[in-house]
Amino acid sequence: MSGAGKISVLVPVYRDGACLDKLLEQLSESDLWEVIVVADSSSRETLEVLEKYGKKVKCLISDRRLGKARSLNRALKYASGEVLVFIDADHYLENTKQLEDFAKQFDGKYEIIDFKKVVDKENLLSRLVYYDYVGFAMVNWLSAKLASKCIGINGSAFAIKRNVFEDLRGFPENEISEDLGLAFKAYTRGVKFKFEEKVIVRLKAPSSWREWFKQRWRWGHGFTLWFKHNYKELLWATVKDPKIVLMPAFFFYPSLTAFLVTAFLPENRLLAGLFLLFFLMVSRIRLLVPILFATYFSIAFVRGMVASTISLALSSLVFFLLARRLGYNFNPLIFIVYFYFYSPLWLLIILVSLIKVFLLKKTEIKDWPTKRPE
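and the corresponding structure tokens:
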């Protein structure tokens, strides 16, 4: 392990890790870091992979489900590194040398570093999920450039200084979205953030729409619980730093911009007049009602289509320019599907999660344990 950086790479795996074997093969090629696998309710296949690497990795295996946050927090005492790197077991390095260069050049100027993540494009679903991670990258890159801090990270692959991780008391164990909880604590305490483009971590998208829904229900529920626990601090952060707090909404749910565009379209007096006339004439000239009704909704439909088209054009331009800057591909046809179908579906899951948590008081997810807030 390197004398200067002393890096510990922690790999959490729950049951099966889609890329665990490949990731461990890459990590075991270098002596610049130690590797610790934190296995929670491991499958037979996972145990066989761990046996394959023997003394090259440290293995912390739990037979009962502890949860990702608790497992990683407990693993800290077995890590000797001054810098902690977390990489999920369904990820792998695009190039081991990139992480080696990061380990050699790490100077401590930044305290939490998010790595660039790229989804392997294998089918339509993975091509749509690809833009989720493009959005994550754009938000974090802009946040780093504008303020050297970020409200949230995708914690599947990132680095953090050990002393900072300890000062933040590790991952919050009362959160399903433990990475969001950690990042928000770091944000509120002014921890210096960087988006590292030179370390590229690749990942597999969910294997089916069923798996995607399962994952997104968990993410949506996790976000909602985090919001419930932190809404006061979040509102205060929005007042102090609106660009950093509100920016993720555009990149994660670009279809939302259609509502903003509608608000800025010139006031349509004809539409308002037709609406008034519709009610005035209902009881007097019933024959005109269908015509008036159709005219009113036709104009409203056209207005909505104009707003939607402008929103799509603006979103496409921004995504194209920033994707090009960050080294991502941009396919306009796939993005149209992402904009009109995928993004609204993901937003709907968030809205349903808000209803479930705030109105129905459902705060737990099966097989995803957390501690209650103290």
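(Above: one complete record from the training split.) The radius of gyration is 24 Å.
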